[in-house]
Amino acid sequence: MNALSVCLLALAITATPPSGPTPRSTQLPHKLRWEAEATLGLEYDSNATRLDSDNATGDPVHAGLMRGQGHLTLRYQPRPDLVLAGNYDLAGKVFFVEAARGQDTLIHRLTGALGLRLGKSLAARLSGLYHEGFQRSGGTSTTTTAGAGLFDFRLLDGRLLLAQALTRRLVGSFALGARRFTYKPDSDLSFGAVLGALSFDLHHNLGKGKTESELDVTLSYTLSGRRFNGEFEHLCLSHIPGCELTDPSEPGQVVTFPHPTSPRRDLVHRLSLEFTWVKGVLVSGGYEYGNSLSNSFGFGYQRHELRAKVVTPLYWKIYGTLQIRARLMFYETATLVLDNPGFEEENRSHALFQLEREVYKGLRLVLRYTLFVGDLTSPEAAGLRHLVFAGCSYRYRSR
Question: Over the stretch 284-293, which tens digit does the pLDDT of each residue have?
């Protein structure tokens, strides 16, 4: 759950204040709160061009790179029932090996939200997101590696959400929104979408005193309808004149043909259950099921994803993080499905181990190892990718 959602839920859960003036000690200061964080370091990538199949041509490219990321969060609460918040992220990486320079990437993302309490236990949030990536191999590149153009897209998203505090611990919310996804290397994969989302968020304190811990559980469902720029694809059948059942150059491969003037349409369902437990250590996990129904042959899929994360203090003021994602994808045929990758992760199965230690007032040293795996439904050795990162991070919070 992001900071903007936390602000909104705090507004929704807070009941009508007691009658009479608010004590001076509890009045909210009309002050801008902000937090900034920057990370910079060197990384080794054992498969920079992301060969993802034993049948892929060429050898994996081993390369060093410089990776950096910046994050800025702003929050302003001029009244007890109103919250304004925004985030800006900037991330990039530059490879030192010419064979991997097609993977040089710059990404930036801007989000903003307005949260307003409408009644005793009802709140609303209006939010927007602008995300854009620039990749050296995107657009005009002839590179056909799995990583070509992976981040070269633009995403616009706007949503209106209503949240109702059902109890002091349980909040239900419903959202309507729209998004526009623009994939620069291939406009046929660009789409516009409308979506609806329903979620229930539970916050519960367990125990008291030294044994107290916090538990957050979220159950959510999202339904989105996508209309693509490209035409939808028919499966070739024997009764269609001039349409062969198989491709002569690739025996066994099915053949499709575009239906003129009719766009491809997908209906995407997502159901997820997540939890976070904090008591000295942080433990979080979740499961997500995704199902995409498409009018184009071969573009439908089902996805199962399990996530787990543990953050715990170790010796000598060192904190350790272990994160695992296991994803299983089942396609109608071998089809590339593009999702929205994040700055520090990619939409594939992986395991991550990180060590960090604060050395001076917000300045931390970071050492991280990540193992990326290809499709777990048919794992291949060529899909393995090792990343080793060493750098520093600095965080500042306003008082």
Answer: 999 999 999 9
